[in-house]
Specification:
By secondary structure, the protein is mainly α. Helix content is about 70%, strand content about 0%. The longest helix is centred in the middle third of the chain and has 20 residues.
């Protein structure tokens, strides 16, 4: 069965996509490519964007996609005007980086420009959880 972008978008628009959507089970590489493209082209609404970031991490656990591409998508999302979206991006990125370091032994380095994006997100406003993560894990 071919990848159905419209059905996948509808699934992303549910309150919180914690479970695997049918398209993810069949076409995980197509889902990943689609999400990266949609995030880069800024075509997703707030709910879809939050769920897309969660799904990218799910897919990465199955060795789909690159760590850097996922971090770039999250960094791009830190510029979003919505406080909730920025907060989810920071929280997920913090967990993703921590998991890669602790569980996989990978060290992900951030450039000064990338740290600048994270600081900008903090200055625009984040929820208390993301703020705490920046203080505790990032020392920002």
């Amino acid at each position: 069965m071919a990848f159905d972008a419209e059905s996948f978008l509808h699934g992303l628009d549910t309150k919180e996509s914690r479970d695997w959507l049918p398209e993810m089970k069949r076409e995980y590489h197509a889902c990943y490519d689609f999400l990266i493209k949609e995030i880069n082209e800024e075509k997703l609404n707030k709910r879809q964007l939050k769920n897309a970031l969660r799904i990218l991490i799910h897919l990465n656990f199955w060795e789909v996609g690159s760590d850097q591409e996922i971090i770039d998508a999250m960094l791009k999302t830190t510029k979003h005007p919505g406080k909730g979206v920025r907060s989810i991006a920071i929280s997920l990125m913090t967990g993703f980086v921590w998991f890669k370091k602790e569980a996989k032994g990978f060290s992900i380095k951030f450039s000064d420009a990338q740290i600048g994006l994270i600081k900008e997100a903090k200055n625009k406003g984040l929820n208390s959880v993301a703020e705490k993560q920046l203080r505790d894990r990032w020392k920002i």
